[in-house]
Amino acid sequence: MKIISFVYGEHCSGITVVEDGKILYCYEEERFTRVKTSTDWKNLTWRHPIKSLYELHYINKVDINSFDVYLFPQIDGVDHLPIFFEDIKSHCNFHIDTDNMLKKAKYYDHHDAHCGLAYYTSGFVDKKCLVVSIDALGSGYSAKYFTAENGKMKFIDGIGRDRISFGMYYAMLTEFIGFQRLKDEGKIVGMSSHGSRVDFVFDCFDRAIGPLNGIKTRQYRDGNDGTMFCDFYNNFFETIGSEFYRNSKMINHIAYAGQTVFENKLCELFNNLHDLYPDYDHLCVSGGVFANVKVNKKLNELPWVKEMYVTPPMGDEGLTLGAVLMYNAKHGEQSVFRFDDVYLGSRYTDEQIISTFEMDKFKSFKSKIEYEPLNIEKVSQLLCDGHIVGLFQGRMEYGPRALGNRTILADPRGSDIYNKLNGRLHRNDCMPFAPVVLDDHVETVFDVKKSKYTAEFMTMLYDTHPEWHDKIPAAVHPIDKTARIQIVREKNNPKLHSILQSFYNRTGVPVLINTSFNVHEEPIVCWPENALDHLINGIVDYLIIEDRLVYLKK
Q1: Which of 24, 463, 499, 542 falls 20 to 30 Å from 81 in CA-CA distance?
Q2: Taking residues 465-481, what's their average pLDDT?
Q3: Structure pTM?
């Protein structure tokens, strides 16, 4: 059984391919277009996964016409398949049998796909699970809840489009502070820890969501999501005034209030859900709201939660795989499993890498580019000496996090590395850089009492033990001393594990900074060419590309 699944629209596009239950490829279109999905949304660009199909056809030699099932999203009020077919036929220079695709087409529900991905990749085989998806809106809902056990999911309820959306609330918060939704939410998370409670600001945000009605939010006053925006803005400026808003010193307090209300309401919602189903003590979550790592930490710390799993591709890029898992589950062919890793994109051959060095754009640098066989001990010494190292290996990660295959590494011990990296990457976030940590040492450095599986994917914050605060300052939030960690196991990423082990042997520190291999406003690097660009442009000092160490002559 060969299944291909699509997602497309104004802020996400991609494909997944599964054959006989084995996940073969998961692609995100932005990696190939080199245009971030947030830019597409801002420009009202409707994006189909054209370049993903090219990658599938030309790099991985997959016949697009050979699938048994073609899964497409349900998109409210849009007859999108004719537009999709017209677009791919006009842009793809290989044969695509759209009549065959239409004949074998199936449609998936947005939140069902999120929840299917969350449950079936959780590894909670024999546990009683609450499965929750929350985002802005999809297929008529902003949230859905399921119970699940023994491989079976049962729909409970959800939050319809006529009620306050948690995802829309955070979009409002992001835009109110002056940032762009679907792009800058992480900045708000970082800023919030720098603020403190100002009661009348807190109350404005609290009233924006309003009281919960059990596991539902309040209804929009006039039937659309503009209600929350208008009510909040009017209330804020009538109560507080524009001078307060313009005061830059107060921005952190606004972020604190908005984030704290968000955390409180979601914890209340989950507690109410648990009151209805008290025997269900494992959480599986997906949807854009759960990109918020502070919320995830709060939920993980609820006393009744035995373990929590946050889907690595928690945003709409995860819909394609979730749709396939739900389709298989409905046909009795899907079991619960755990990801070994999420390296599900393309990889590039040694021949393709060598040909990159010969590209016309690099000819003027040819005499300066040096490469040699990779020496792990040399790399760890370079890191100790303060150099920034790009790591490009294997298959691309699936989801928003760089998890060791398209990654930038640095020494977390010096306070100066934070500003150095921010300057190189044209980044001004308030969040610290995330740490990778050896699996054998994670509990020495971080307080990881539960949910260690999800910590392999950088989807949750954990507290740092006090004695390590000053040892790894660049990887710890300066105020709340949390870190968004990735546990690295040898079997999952032997090369990164070896680099970490060598660094630990030299320094006694089992941690490195891991940030995504891209400058600000660009997607994570895709091809060897993109990685070499970062070396040429001085973003990284050294580049590991598969089994070579590449650098420029001094």
Answers
A1: 24
A2: 96
A3: 0.95
